[in-house]
Amino acid sequence: MTADTPDYEEIVTDVAIVGSGGAGLMCALHCHEADPGLDITVISKGAVGRSGCTRMVQGGFNAVLDPGDSVDAHFRDTLAGGKYLNDQDLAWTLVNDAPGVIRELETRVGCFFDRRPDGRIKQKAFAGQSFDRTVHRGDLTGIEIMSRLRDQMLRIAARELEDVRALDLVFDAAGRLAGLTCLEVQTGRFLLVRARVVVVATGGAATMYRIAAPAREKTGDGVAMCLRAGLPVRDMEMLQFHPTGLLTGRSRMTGAVLEEGLRGAGAHLYNARGERYMERYDPERMERSTRDVVSRASYTEIVEGRGTEAGGVFIDISHLGAEWVERTFKGMVERTRLFGGDLARRPVEVSPTAHFHMGGVLIDTDCRTDVPGLLVAGEDAGGVHGANRLGGNGVAESTVFGARAGDTAARLARERVHGDADPNAVGESFSRATAPLRSAGGELPYPLTAELKDLMWQSCGVVRRRDRLEDARERLAELADRAARLSVPGPVAFNPAWQESLDLVNQLTVARVIVESALARDETRGAHARSDFPDSGDDGDLHYIVATPAGEDVPRLTTRPVEYGRLRPQEAAS
Fold first, then answer.
1. What CATH number should be reported for the domain holding residue 263?
2. Is residue 263 in a domain?
3. Region entry Disordered: which residue ranges (predicted)?
4. Any idea what the CATH number is for the domain that residue 442 is in?
C-alpha cells in the first residue's frame, strides 16, 4: 500500500460481472439459474440494463429457425463474412446456440419478437447472409431484449453497482486472480471487489474515432484492463465501420447507426451526383453486400470527390412508400426527423461510422481466458467474427456467450476460493486513477480526446496505409506521454473531467494495439483495408495476429495459423 492510497470499501462476492449489456445480464441470469445460492455482483459504468450498446441494437438477432435454413448455412455465411479469419470453434458455437437463446429470450425472459401471420417468428433479410434469418422487434430489437433482461435482474436480485467504473484486475501475492478495483463515478469513492470469478463484458472501443456509433461510455475499459493484466488479444486491427451512420453536424448523434435492415429491405445508396454507386463495387449484391465492402465503397466515393459537402453519401428507402417505411422502421424515422430529415420521404445523409471491434481477448468456447477465474464475453472477446461481423451476429454473440459465461462462472465459483488482493497492487491501481487529481500544470483531457478521435479517423480508419499508420504510432506515443501528465481540477465527486481522463488512458491503451496490429497486416482483409496492399493474401494459408503486452512498450506481436477445424476456404467455395 502506498502513502497516496485513498480509503476504500471492500465488497466480497462470488461472481463479479463487469458490464450490464446483453452479455453481462445474460451472464448474471444464467449464473443465478445454475446456482441460486451464489452472490452475484453486476458492475456497470452506467445504469444497469439501461446503458451500453445492446440497448442500441436496431436490426436484430441471427438465428436458424426456419426449416429452409440450416446451421451449416449460417456458419458458412459467418466465415465468409469474416474472411475465414474466425476461430471456427467459436463461430460454430455461436450459430448452434443462437436458436436456443432466441427460444429462451421468448419463453423465459419474456421478449416479444415480430411474428408472421401464421404465428411463427418473423425473420428479415440482412446483408451478407444467404437466408432471411434475422429475428427482430421492429427496429427497436435491443430495447426489447434489454428491457426484458432488466426485468429478470429484479427477479434474481443480484447486487447492482451502478455508475461504477472498473479500474484494474488485481491478484494475490501468488499471482492468482483476487478481484478488481473500482471507482464510484458519482461519489469518487473507491471499491475493492473481491471475487472468486470475474467476468469482463464491458463492450468495445469504437468511440476513439471521430464518427462513431456506440454509447459514449464504451471506451475500451475491459480490453484495456485485460491488457494491463498481461492477457493476449487477437484481431485488434479489425475495427468494423458500419456503412450508414447519421450525419448531424456537431450533434453527438453524428455516427448513430441507421440499421442494416434498411439495405436488406431494398434501400439504395447514392452519391452526391445521384449515382447508385454500389454498381461499381459489388454489382451482384449491391447494397446487400457486407459492411466492409459497402463502407469502403462509400469512403471511396467521398474521398474521390463524389460525396456531399458534409462528407457523406445518401441512403434512400422512400421509393418503398412512406406509410410502409413509417410502420416498418418507426424508430429510425423518428430519429431522422429529430434532425430535420425524413427517412420515410426523402434521402438521408450518412457516412461510414466506427461501430464494432472484432478483436479482443483470446477465449475458449466457455469464455475462459489464460487467467484462471477470469472470463470474457461479448465485444471484449476476439475470434468469433474474424475480419468482419455480419449484421445480426452481434447481439447473438453477446447473449450466446454471456449465457455460456454465466454457466461457466457458476461452475468455477464452486471450485475457487476468495483470494486476498495484493495491497501494493490495490494501492498502485488507486494511485494511477488519482494521478490527474494530484498533478499540477498538465493539460485537461478533452483536447487530447479530440486529437485521438481525429488521428484514428484519418490514419487508422476505413482505409489505411503504412505512412499514416507509422505517423499514428508516433503521435499515439506522444498522446500517451501527455496523458500521463494530465491535470484535472475539482472534487472527486462527480468530476466529468476526471472520468474523461480515465477514459482517455484506456482508449490510448487500446488504440496503440490497434495501430501496431494494422501495421503488421500487409493485406486487405475484411474490415482492415490497406490502400498500399489492396489484395487479400492466400485464403489457404491464413494467420491471425496476437498482441501480448510488454510493459510500457508497444505490445509484442506474433502470428498464429487459422485452424480450419470444420471448413477450409476452398471447401466453402466449392
1. 3.90.700.10
2. yes
3. 524-574
4. 1.20.58.100
Among 448, 22, 376, 453, smallest CA distance to 205 is for: 453
Which structural domain range is residue 329 located in?
242-353
Residue 291 catalytic?
yes
Which letter, b or e, does each residue of 340-364 get, where b requires 16 or more Cβ atoms within 10 Å of its Cβ? ebebbbebbbbbbbbbbbbbbbbbb
DSSP-H helix ranges across 209-311: 221-228, 261-265, 291-301
pLDDT (tens place) for every residue of the chain, 574 residues total: 555 678 899 999 999 999 999 999 999 999 999 999 999 999 999 999 888 778 778 789 999 999 999 999 999 999 999 999 999 999 999 999 999 999 999 999 999 999 999 999 999 988 889 999 999 998 889 899 999 999 999 999 999 999 999 999 999 999 999 999 999 999 999 999 999 999 999 999 999 999 999 888 899 999 999 999 999 999 999 999 999 999 988 777 789 889 888 998 999 999 999 999 999 999 999 999 988 899 999 999 999 999 999 999 999 999 999 999 999 998 899 989 988 899 999 999 999 999 999 999 999 999 999 999 999 999 999 999 999 999 899 999 999 999 999 999 999 999 999 999 999 999 999 999 999 999 988 999 999 999 999 999 999 999 999 999 999 999 999 999 999 999 999 899 999 999 999 999 999 999 999 999 999 999 999 999 999 999 887 666 899 999 999 876 678 999 999 999 999 887 765 5
**Separation of alpha carbons 116 and 67, rounded Å:** 15
Q: Which residue, 353, 385, 406, sits at the end of a domain?
A: 353
Assigned domain for 375 exists: no
Maximum C-alpha span of the chain:
69
The length of the chain in residues reads: 574
